[in-house]
Design goal:
alpha/beta; Rossmann fold; 6-stranded parallel sheet; elongated
Length: about 400
Amino acid sequence: MRTTRIGFLTWSDHQGQGDWSGSPWSIRSALDRAGYEMVTIECGPYNPVGHGRKIGLRIADRFPRIGSIARSVKRTLFEGSDRVRRRSIDAGAIADANIARLRPDLVVGVKMSLVMGWMRSSLPFVYASDATASEYVKGYAAGKWQNTRWQRSIIEAESRTIQRADRTILYFDQLVDSAIRDHGGDPARISVSHPGANITAGPESNSPERRPDREDLQVLFVASDPVRKRLALAADVVDGLRDRGWAATLNYIGPPHPAAERSSVRSVGRLRLEGPEDRKKHLAELERNHVNLLPTQADMCPLSVAEASSSGIPSVVSRLGGLPRSVIEGKTGRLLDVDAELDDWVDALEWTVADPERYRRLSVAAQEYARTDLTWDAWAERASKVIDELLEDA
């Protein structure tokens, strides 16, 4: 056990395995395995209204359009710039009080820029994130629910946090450029550590031995947002493979969507990281499928690729965000431009599975890459060098 006590900053109502796409839970667990003593630093609730978040998720699952309208109303009423700033200042004060009481050696916050920029503690801070606010707004803010005041408020918080943090750890290189250019970050205090997978096949997995063929081709598609990640295009790709004589099925993990009702699509439903039965179902899908497809039009660093790779499943994905780090072109899968034509996607998927020996090489390489580079323990090993160096200089 290291002697370092890490204060792990968290919202009181967001500490589960599935919160914020699972990254905070996974990072905390990996740092704990790395030998640090982990101390919880709460800063109050993210959602001030009881169980509204769970109710909202259930509504969004059953009625996607109503869920979208509800999010729009919520942000308009409760997340204007003044309200966000006030809530952030209050949360920072709560965190400061808990830091003074629990006395860690430094503080780590994952996706906590709404709070970290307003904290007054003199302890060293490490901020980790899969996105900068400016890249988030650029890639995800096409929807009408994103109002300008809300955008301004999260960009301000991100800038304060990156300028305040003693070290910032981001998931891929493009974010470093954004942190410097858009948020005034100091290049000397910014580093990169690629994330791992939240769902991984065990060492007994023998997925590379599963071979696709024309009589049985199982294609995996995982998306919490089927519009942004383009479920309809994925279904078109599978339909294109069917036109070429492949008995292909798209196995979709995610919320309801009209494209999921096609005959070529098998809808698994939304699976939650915090549910043991859902995790079993997800692992079963990793065992079932031959290739992972993600023609997303906007993304940062989706972990579904690492999860597929851990089971020896090659991926065909868009060339954007952190995906060029998750997939090695021609070795663990294929990368295509976002504006690639439908036939290009069909060609890439067919190239991946058509030749048995090539598929075997892709599968073995994907699994090896996942188990050496795309793990949270690998993330923690890289991050620990930053943390230990920071404390040595303190």
